[in-house]
Sequence to fold (235 residues):
Amino acid sequence: MTRRIYTEDAYLRQCPATVEEVTERGVILNATVFYPTGGGQPGDTGTLSWDGGSATVADTVADEHGRIVHILAEDAPRPEPGTNVTAEIDFDRRHRLMRMHTCLHLLSAVLPYPVTGGQVSDGSGRLDFDLPDAPDKAEVEAELNQLIEQDHPVGERWITDEELDAQPELVKTLSVQPPRGAGRIRLLEIPDVDLQPCGGTHVKRTGEIGPVRVRKIEKKGRMNRRVKVELESSR
Fold:
């Protein structure tokens, strides 16, 4: 298993690592700051650099063994196994994803209904709700920005599989269940606002998100409403 340094500190931009394997898909390191695609959040992009070379990381995914694969640009050189590298993410992009991912947690608190789907994108995002009637767009936007402006702390805690089984209400998503079997599950916690399983990256305080706008609320089925939001600033 690759050491997932981004779970220890989502603000780290780079880390030293050693190439464990180079596959057809990409490069596997013993440790990384790169977040792999999952939970509706895209994989990180960035660079791997080593003595005498560097390569652009175009995407990051996790394989079936839990190892993180850094997918390199087609024309990029490949470091040899055993090479010591510096793994560095495109932090400006990552930070926008962190802001939006945290924003969607707030959205799920503003609209406390079962979540049927979602997607974090660079500067925008969406959640789908099991909801027969569309909420008022202006009211949702106002409540969302109010939670952001209140600058709530954002943290995490860990519980066991058994503790989660005893509290099924913590799982808001109907289509995706948190991974089990590792012995513990990470919860994203915004005190008095939101608490649910999540393995993504987030900002430390809600005020860091900045102002957002609700761009559209769409009907995607008899009991499904899609709420699209976007950051007002890409700072």
